[in-house]
C-alpha cells in the first residue's frame, strides 16, 4: 500500500479501515481545509453525537497546488510533536486518535466548536484571562520535557536526530529570518511603507542582529518547539462552562531555541494590539506578552525541581530563563517585520481600513525588539517602547 | 556475516578479503594497541616498502575489558569524521583506505614513523613552528565546512542527525563537564590537592559557569567536532624533509560547539607548559594557544568569502569568532580541571618528580579560564594569568 490522496468520499471507509468508526454508513463528511498547507475533513454521525477530524498532508502546498511540491513528511513532524505534548500537556492540544504515516494523515479531535484565536481577535474580542497563560504553560511544559533538564541525555540525542526538519526549517530560515532584510521576489508591502522597507534593507546593525538570531535558530537545539506558534495556531472557546485552549498545527516542529515559540506568540499579540488600537477596540491586548511570559516562567520554575540532571543549579536556571527571554524578544521582532514587509502578511493588519499607521508602528517596534533585546529586561521595558 | 574480533593472525586474510593487499603471504603483523579504547595492528611487507594500520573498535573499553561495555559504533563516528575532514584537510589526517562498518574496523595509513605529540612534549621537545598552526587550521577547515556557513542547510540537518553520539557525548558530559565539581567515585587527586578539590566542589560561581558550558556542549550544534583534540590525538614528525602533523582518533566526533575542540587543545598546551616550567625545559610552550587561535581565525576568515549563505555578514563573523574564542577558554578551563581532580589524569603532570606545584598552578588557571572567560579577550590576557 502506498500514499493516496483522500477525498471526501474516501473518509468513511478510511475511518472504518483504520478502526476509528465501526458503522461507515453513519458518517457525514465535509471538507474544511483552511490553512495553506493541508487538507482537513470533518466526519460526524447523523445524530451529531460523535465526530472526528482527518487531516492529511498533501505532497505539495495545498493552496498553490502541485507546482509547489512539499514533502508530506511534515505530517510526521506534526504527529511527533503531538505525541511529545500529549505526555505533558494533553489538555492543551487536540486529542490525537491515530497517525497513519503511510498516508500522512492524522485522525484527531473535532474542534469545530472552537474558534481560531486570530479570527476572534480580528472580530474585536479580547484574549480573555486564560489564553496567554495556557499558551505560556504549554511552551514551558513542552520545552522543559524535551530539554536536557527534563529528558535523559541519550533520549534527547535520539529526539534531535528524529526531529530534524530540513524542508520546513529552511522555510523559516528564508522567509522569516533573511528575506525581509534583502531584495527578494517574495517580499511585498504597502506602497506607503516603501521608506521603511528600504531602511530595513539598508540597516547594517539590524542585519547583523537578524543574522545572529538566524544562526541561533539553525544551531541551538534546546528543546522541541511547536515551530509556528501564532494566533492562527490556537483555538479557544468554552466547553461545559470551562475555557478551552487548544494549540494545533505543530508541523514546523523541530528541536530549536525555546525563544522562537514565545517570540512568535508575542509578535502576534503585539500586532493584534496595533489592530485593536487602530480600531478603538483595545482591551486586554497589552497584557498578553507579560501573561504568557509569567506563565511560561512560573511553570518552568515549577518543573525545575523535577529535572533529570541536577548538575544544573538554580543560578543556571536564572541565566537560562534570561536568555530565553532575550531571544524571545528578538524572534518576536523578526516575526513582526516579516509579516509586514515579507512574504506572508497578517489579516490583523491587511483588513484594517488603513493598515499603514499600525504597520509603521509595528515595524518600528519589531526593529527595536531585535536590536535592543539585550537591554529590554522586563515586560514593562517592552511596554515602554509602545 | 557479523562482527568478529580481529586477532593478529586474522589481519593478513582480512586485508586480502577487503581488497587492500593482494599477497597475504607477504604481510607481517604486530599489535600496537595504545589508547584506552581500541585495538590497532600494523601490517607491513617483508621488504618494508608497504604498510597499513588496522584499527578495530571492540564492544568494550579495551583496557577495562568486557566488564565495561561500549558500543563499537564509535568507529562509525570516527569514520564519518575522517570522511568530512578528508574533503577539506586531507593533509592533516591519516589517509583512510577503507571503513568496514560490519567489523567497526578502519584500514588506514601507518603512522608509526611519527610520534604522538604528548610523548614528544613529555620528553622535553618543543612544539616546533607548525604543530599548533596546522591544528588550528584543521579546526577551522572542519568547522567551517560543517557549519551553516560552509554547508547547505538541509545537508547540515542530515549531518546533525547522522552524527548524534549519545554514548560518547555522555562520557564528556559526565567526566569532563560535571563530575570534577561534585562528589563522585570517579574523581581522584594527589592528597596535597585536597584543599583545592574541596574548594572547587564548594564554589557556586564555578559550578554555574560549568553548568553553562555543559548546556552549550549539549545544545550548540555549530559544526562537526573532533571531540577529543588533546595532544595524544596528534602525531608529528618529518617526512622527506617536511614537517608532518596528523590529527587522529576522532571517535568522539559529533556536531557541537567549535570552542570545544580549540579548548581541549589549549588545555593540553597550557598543562604542557606547566610541566616544562617545572622541569626547566620551557621553550615555545607559551606560544601555542596564540598560534593555534591565530591559525584558526585566519583560516576561518580566509574561508568566509566562500560561505554558502551570504546572509551572514562580516559583522556577524566577528561576533561568531568572538564567541568561539570565549567558549574555547571556558572549555580549556574545564579540561585542565578534570585532568587533575577528575577521572583520567595527564602523564604531563603525573610523571613529574613533584606534580603538586604545577598541578596547583594549572587548577587555579583552569578556574580563572572558566569564570573569567568573558573578560579575557586576547591571548595576551590569558598569558597575563600565568
UniProtKB/TrEMBL annotation, chains A, B:
Keywords: ATP-binding, Kinase, Nucleotide-binding, Transferase. Residues 29-286 form the Aminoglycoside phosphotransferase domain. InterPro entries: Aminoglycoside_PTrfase, Kinase-like_dom_sf, Methylthioribose_kinase. The keyword ATP-binding applies. One of its GO terms (molecular function) is ATP binding. Pfam families: APH. One of its GO terms (biological process) is methionine biosynthetic process. Homodimer. Belongs to the methylthioribose kinase family. This is S-methyl-5-thioribose kinase. It comes from Streptomyces viridochromogenes.
Amino acid at each position: 500500500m502506498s500514499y493516496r490522496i483522500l477525498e471526501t468520499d474516501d473518509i468513511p471507509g478510511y475511518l472504518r479501515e483504520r478502526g476509528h468508526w465501526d458503522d461507515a454508513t453513519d458518517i457525514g463528511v465535509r471538507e474544511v481545509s483552511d490553512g495553506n498547507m493541508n487538507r482537513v475533513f470533518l466526519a460526524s454521525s447523523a445524530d451529531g453525537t460523535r465526530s472526528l477530524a482527518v487531516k492529511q498532508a498533501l505532497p505539495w502546498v495545498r493552496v498553490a497546488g502541485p507546482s509547489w511540491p512539499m514533502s508530506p513528511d511534515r505530517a510526521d513532524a506534526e504527529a511527533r510533536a503531538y505525541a511529545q505534548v500529549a505526555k505533558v500537556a494533553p489538555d492543551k492540544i487536540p486529542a490525537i486518535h491515530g497517525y497513519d504515516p503511510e498516508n500522512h494523515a492524522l485522525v484527531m479531535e473535532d474542534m469545530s466548536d472552537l474558534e481560531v484565536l486570530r479570527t476572534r481577535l480580528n472580530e474585536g474580542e479580547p484574549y480573555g484571562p486564560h489564553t496567554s497563560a495556557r499558551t505560556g504553560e504549554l511552551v514551558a511544559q513542552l520545552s522543559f520535557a524535551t530539554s536536557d533538564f527534563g529528558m535523559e541525555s541519550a533520549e534527547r540525542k535520539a529526539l534531535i536526530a528524529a526531529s530534524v526538519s530540513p524542508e520546513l526549517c529552511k522555510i523559516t530560515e528564508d522567509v522569516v529570518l533573511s528575506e525581509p532584510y534583502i531584495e527578494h521576489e517574495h517580499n511585498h508591502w504597502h506602497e506607503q511603507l516603501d521608506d521603511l522597507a528600504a531602511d530595513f534593507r539598508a540597516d547594517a546593525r539590524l542585519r547583523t542582529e537578524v543574522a545572529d538570531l538566524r544562526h541561533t535558530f539553525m544551531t541551538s537545539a534546546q528543546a522541541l518547539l511547536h515551530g509556528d506558534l501564532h494566533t492562527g495556531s490556537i483555538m479557544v472557546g468554552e466547553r461545559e462552562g470551562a475555557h478551552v485552549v487548544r494549540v494545533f498545527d505543530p508541523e514546523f516542529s523541530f528541536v530549536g531555541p525555546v525563544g522562537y515559540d514565545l517570540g512568535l506568540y508575542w509578535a502576534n499579540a503585539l500586532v493584534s494590539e496595533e489592530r485593536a488600537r487602530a480600531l478603538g477596540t483595545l482591551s486586554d491586548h497589552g497584557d498578553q506578552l507579560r501573561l504568557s511570559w509569567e506563565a511560561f516562567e512560573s511553570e518552568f520554575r515549577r518543573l525545575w525541581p523535577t529535572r533529570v540532571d541536577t548538575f544544573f543549579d538554580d543560578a543556571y536556571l536564572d541565566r537560562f530563563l534570561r536568555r530565553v527571554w532575550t531571544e524571545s524578544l528578538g524572534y518576536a521582532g523578526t516575526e513582526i517585520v516579516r509579516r509586514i514587509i515579507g512574504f506572508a502578511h497578517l489579516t490583523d493588519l491587511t483588513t484594517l481600513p488603513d493598515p499603514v499607521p499600525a504597520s509603521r508602528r509595528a515595524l518600528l517596534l519589531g526593529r527595536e525588539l531585535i536590536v535592543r533585546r539585550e537591554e529590554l529586561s522586563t515586560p514593562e521595558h517592552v511596554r515602554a517602547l509602545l
